[in-house]
Amino acid sequence: MDILGEIAKGIGSLFIQPALYVAILLVIVAGFSRIKWERKAFHVSIHSPWQELKGFFGIGLLFGLTLSIVTFFIGLTLTITWIAIFNVVMIVLLLVGLFRMASAAYTIGITSLAYYAVYYFNMDLSPFVDQMLPLRDLYVDNFMIVLVLLLALLLAVEAFLIQFSGANHASPMLRKSGRGKLVGAFQLRQLWFVPLVCFIPGHGFAMLFDWWPVFQIGNQSFALMVLPLVIGFQQQVQSQLPAQAARKLAVRITSLAILVALIGVIGIVVPILTLLGFVVAIIGRLWVSYRHRADERKSAFKFTPQPDGIMILGARDNTPASRMSLLPGEKILEVNGRLVRNREDLYEALNENRAYCKLKVQDNNGEPRIVQTALYEGDSFELGLFMVEAR
Predict the structure, then answer these.
(1) Residue where a domain terminates, one of 298, 329, 348
(2) Of 123, 126, 275, 276, which one has the fewest beta carbons inside 10 Å?
(3) pTM (2 decimals)?
(4) Which InterPro entries does the UniProt record give (predicted)?
């Protein structure tokens, strides 16, 4: 019963950390702000304003559970001071950089460097002081090795999340190019909640982890705690499909994760190199974002008005366009046997048969395909399409 009580208190510790509430507020505000610019561009909202919040409490929870099982059995141990710094760092990064600064490279990296500075200069951060673990009783080298290896693992998780769900519900948008030409683009923006179980010095569990000599205290006990970790990213895509951009970002972040892990392993022999691991993670993640923006700037726009058809930017859910699986980047060439070049051509072709729609589409590989569907009363007159056209 005592063990269950300690577990319950550990889970409850999640809700006394302010970073969680700031993250939740941010995703709610992001959802409603997205609705505003969708309506400005397309005169209709595309996804629910709660889409970001549903994604926040989505697949990240599964990763959090899996990682927590691992961290529980290896005895991941943090300190109250580290967790306090983490909450401050995460709140500042979320408020200043929004989703784009929510990478584990920044939150874990900056927190760990700041904590090392606190340790090195013996700073007093009262009241966030570990009463049961004075700084002098901490094996800081081992502590930093644990954190840099944890950071490498979280970067790998970040890469996986971006590749397999980062492009889900990408938000289409219209913007002007440098020459004033109207082009389509996508905003990739996700924030995932990945709660992480850890231990802190305190009353609760007896010392179970003597194979990992982080502390000098022989009979130390530990309390369970849940860290409100969030992982996120934000990038604009205009020269490629959202899934392609997400895949490239994931590959680069995976490479960074491997590099950080290698530094962590070498740090077991040369402990001071663990600090380099945090620096490499921070600079490397900044470079990944910069490289993406640079590639986008120098590449040709993909979603532009077409002289021989209608460029598709997206399709609303539960509409004829979604039933026909029309995808971003595809081009409508014919509607009901008539060539179409713009919105007016589309109207006229649809008016010829309001009960049925047959389209000839050029897919993203340049190959033609035929799609068709029945039209029902209440269906959008424009098929539920988001188009890029000259204005």
Answers:
(1) 298
(2) 126
(3) 0.89
(4) PDZ, PDZ_sf
Q: How far apart are CA 302 and CA 360, in angstroms?
A: 20
Q: How far is CA 282 from CA 23, 140, 229, 384, 386, in A?
A: 20, 20, 17, 42, 37
CA dist list (Å): 133 to 77, 126, 301: 12, 14, 56
Same domain assignment for residues 382 and 285: no
User: Could you tell me if 388 and 324 are in contact, meaning their C-beta atoms sit under 8 angstroms apart?
Assistant: no
pLDDT, position 48 = 86
237 and 287 in one domain? yes
Q: Check whether residue 314 and residue 258 sit in a common domain.
A: no
Q: State pLDDT tens for residues 174-211.
A: 888 777 788 889 999 999 999 998 888 765 555 454 44
Cβ neighbour number for residue 351 with a 10 Å cutoff: 10
**Do residues 107 and 244 both lie within one domain?**
yes
Whether 287 and 98 have beta carbons less than 8 Å apart is answered as no
Q: Which two tokens stand for residue 73?
A: 């059995």
Distance of CA 81 to the CA centre of its chain: 27
In angstroms, the CA 272 to CA 302 distance is 47
Domain that holds residue 55: 2-298
Is residue 173 in a domain? Answer: yes
Helix (H) or strand (E) holding 204: strand 196-205
Q: 275-289: per-residue pLDDT in tens?
A: 999 999 999 999 999
d(CA 308, CA 81): 63
Among 298, 321, 347, the domain-final residue is 298
Return d(Cα 209, Cα 348) in angstroms, integer.
73
Q: Are residues 285 and 368 in the same domain?
A: no
Peptide bond into 127 cis (omega under 30): yes
24 close to 240: Cβ distance less than 8 angstroms: no
Here the CATH number for the domain that contains residue 318 is 2.30.42.10
Within the chain, what is the greatest distance between any pair of CA atoms?
84
